[in-house]
Design brief:
Layout (H helix, E strand, L loop, with lengths): L2 H8 L9 E3 L6 E3 L6 E11 L10 H18 L3 E11 L5 H17 L3 E9 L5 E11 L14 E5 L9 H4 L4 H10 L4 E4 L4 H12 L2 E5 L7 H5 L6 H7 L6 E5 L4 H11 L5 E8 L3 E6 L2 E5 L9
Parallel strand pairs: 4-5, 9-12
Antiparallel strand pairs: 1-2, 2-3, 3-6, 4-6, 7-10, 7-11, 8-10, 9-11, 12-13
């Protein structure tokens, strides 16, 4: 049983209450607790030694990544982060100075986005370090973007460049909070997700929730330099489609807005690439159009327990 099969089994009959606007199935839970015009966003994520980082990584970057993963999910809902709790699981032989530097990395990133780290928990965890972050944020009710709104004919867009994050980006990526807020302020974004498990895998989440399909254009996929340099291990296009931990925004917008969106983005974020990589279709599934024709794609990103 892989990660997504387990999640499906565990979420079939979860306890709920009237505050829940959106539960499992989006980047964050959305809760209506009576705040005028706003909802709370609630998110948890974890990084584990040997899975998400190795012990030769700079500890400040481990802390950065642990917090940034939650911030990226808040961004995917077009929200604003507010506060975080940190659960720290450590082997008995931990190095206090190393752990202190992990917190230095978390604190630096938190301050840059105005996030308060308000407490947490410490516990023994045999053999390896585990860091779990729980975060709350907020979003205007009319600006909250779910995965479930993609429609036939929508353009599919992605920020930045994809693939090869293992070369370094996975430890020091910048959550696209400002970019997501700008999108929600200026365009009717139908659906959005951050790319944590690979472009195709995460696009599938949007398609499943929206009941649609997608056609991608090979020539428009923004392949990173890191993916091209690692081509001996994996073809660059394969890396761009399937490598995880890019943490870029993947979103859909109504047809006819591509030019205005691209022009506005370039003026607002001149150092960050934005690419229209395909369109939403009525036909289920994901296909890739290249010079040789149209090819069906399966989920090929990272899946826990697979």
């Amino acid at each position: 049983m892989n990660e997504f099969e387990l999640i499906a089994q565990l979420t079939r009959s979860l306890a709920a209450n009237p505050t829940v606007v959106a539960g499992p199935g989006d980047d964050c839970a959305v809760l209506d607790v009576g705040l005028p015009g706003r909802c709370l966003l609630f998110k948890t994520d974890a990084v584990v030694e040997g899975i998400h980082f190795l012990m030769d990584a700079p500890p400040e970057k481990i802390g950065h990544k642990a917090l940034a993963r939650c911030l990226s999910d808040i961004a995917a809902m077009a929200g604003k982060p507010l506060a975080a709790l940190v659960t720290l699981g450590l082997p008995k032989t931990f190095d206090p100075a190393f752990i202190g530097k992990i917190y230095d990395g978390m604190n630096k990133l938190a301050r840059s986005f105005g996030v308060a780290i308000v407490g947490g928990e410490t516990t023994t965890n045999p053999e390896r370090i585990l860091i779990s972050i729980s975060m709350i944020g907020e979003v205007e009710k009319h600006k909250c973007i779910l995965r479930s709104g993609a429609r036939d004919g929508d353009g599919i867009f992605v920020s930045g460049e994809l693939g090869g994050s293992i070369s370094g980006k996975h430890l020091d990526f910048q959550p696209r909070l400002a970019e997501a807020r700008w999108l929600a302020d200026h365009f009717p974004i139908h659906s959005m997700i951050d790319i944590s498990d690979g472009l195709v895998n995460d696009l599938w989440h949007i398609l499943d929730r929206s009941g649609v399909g997608a056609e991608l254009l090979a020539k428009s996929i923004p392949i990173s330099r890191a993916a091209k340099l690692r081509k001996a291990q994996k073809l660059p296009m394969e890396a761009a489609l399937g490598d995880g931990e890019d943490f870029e925004l993947l979103f859909t917008v109504p047809p006819g807005l591509a030019v205005a969106l691209l022009d506005g983005w370039k003026a607002q974020f001149p150092k960050l690439r934005l690419s229209c990589i395909g369109k939403i279709t009525k036909t289920p599934g994901v296909s890739l159009r290249d010079a040789t024709g149209v090819h069906s794609l399966k989920s090929n990103g990272y899946v826990h327990f697979a």
